[in-house]
Amino acid sequence: MTDVSTPSRRWSAFTTPVNGRATPWDIGGPQPVLVAIEDAGRISGEVLDAGCGLGDNAIFLASRGYRVTGVDAVPRAIEEAQKRALAKGVQADFTVADVTSLDGFEGRFDTVVDSALYHCLTEENQQRYIAALHRACKPGARLHLFCFAAERPAAIPVMQRITEQNLRDTVGRQWNITSLHLALYQTSLTPEGVRQMGTGAPETEVTSEPELDEHGRIKAPVWQLTAERVD
């Protein structure tokens, strides 16, 4: 399994200029799947955005009145998130942190959002990460996690995709999985942009025709997991 968990490698995987955007995940706002979760009343209390990247999800949640902390291993990403929050007049805390330990955050959060971080970690670090989230959360806390799904053909080149069994074995050790189903994750990529990105590496080849939004941007298949902290 490819190790993309270090800051430099994780950032470099997402900064190839495509269609004039800095990263394939920079869609100019929060993920629609996260907006739907918040609209449904499934976010509560103090929120951790784990692997917050450029901060748009955290900024959205803060704009809805939540106290939000965004953490990422990449200083450049945190700097950009802080700039975006300032530009929108939204108060959110952003800090550089190791998500596999989350030192200093013990017993703090009621909700965790993982928007495409989990699949960036090795299997060993996935286990450490899920344990760190458990320590950082209060009893009864809820986890919302999105990661690229191995059970659906790749619509975009990615470093690795996650199986349902991986999630049940790893997350299920310390969290009660209440929902796990396939969903679609918005990207800024178009099919032409993906062709321009092609690396030729077998593990990153596109193997299916992607589903597109109304602007011709690719929606990538992901696992959408919801789980509750087991005391």
Automatic annotation (TrEMBL):
Gene3D superfamilies to which the protein is assigned, alphabetical: Vaccinia Virus protein VP39
Entry keywords, A to Z: Methyltransferase, S-adenosyl-L-methionine, Transferase
Domain Methyltransferase: 47-140
Cited CDD domains: AdoMet_MTases (cd02440)
Entries under InterPro entries matching the protein: Methyltransf_25, SAM-dependent_MTases_sf
The UniProt record lists the keyword Lipid metabolism: no
BP GO terms, sorted: methylation
GO MF entries: methyltransferase activity
Entry superkingdom: Bacteria
The protein's name in its UniProt record: Transferase
Organism of origin: Streptomyces fodineus
